[in-house]
Amino acid sequence: MSFNNLDTLYRQVIMDHYKNPRNKGAVEDGSVTIDMNNPTCGDRIHLTLDVQDGVVNQAKFTGEGCSISMASASMMTQAVKGKDIETALKMSGIFSDMMQGKDYDDSIDLGDIEALQGVSKFPARIKCATLAWKAMEKGINEKPE
Asked: Which among 31, 32, 13 is positioned nearest to 22, based on CA atoms?
C-alpha cells in the first residue's frame, strides 16, 4: 500500500473513532476515576475504569477536545479493556514512545492505535494524543489497593 493510501486509511480510522467513539460514558461503580485536561488547547477527559484483581474490566470516557484527543481516548479504552494492569501500562509506554518518534516495542498489537503514529510529526498535537493515556496511567498508579 502506498504512503498516500496508508495516510488516508489512518485519517479515516481516526475520524471514525472521533465521530463514533467507543466506550463513551462512565463505568458504574468504577474503581478508578480521573479528570485531566490539556490547558494548552482545552482538551479535557473524564476517565472511569473498573479495575478488579489487577485487570481492567471496563474503561469509559467523556470529554471534549479535538479529533486527535477524542479518537485516542476511544482507541485507548478499547485497547486496555480486558488487559492486566501491567500490560495496560506497557501499552501506554509503547504509545508514548511512538508519539515521540522513538523506536517502540511492537510485541503488543496496538490495532487502531497505530493510526495515530503520524501525530508524532506535529509536536503541538502530541499532548492531545497522549491525554487519555496519561489519565489512565495516573488513575491506575493512584488506585488504592
From this structure: 13
From CA 65, how far away is CA 52, in angstroms rounded? 29
Residue 53 pLDDT level (bands cut at 50, 70, 90): very high
Please give the grid coordinates belonging to residue 14: 481516526
Q: In the prediction, which pLDDT does 7 show?
A: 79
> Which residues are CB-neighbours of 56 under 8 A, at least 6 positions away?
49, 50, 80, 81, 82, 83, 84, 85, 88, 140
Q: Which domain holds residue 71?
A: 3-142
Give the Cα separation of 75 and 111 in Å (integer).
9
How far, in whole angstroms, is CA 17 from its chain's centroid?
A: 11
**What total of structural domains would you count in the chain?**
1
What band does 82 get if pLDDT is binned at 50, 70 and 90? very high
Separation CA 25–CA 46 (nearest Å): 9
Question: What CATH number did the domain enclosing 81 receive?
Answer: 3.90.1010.10
pLDDT score recorded for residue 6: 64
CB 51, CB 26: distance < 8 Å: no
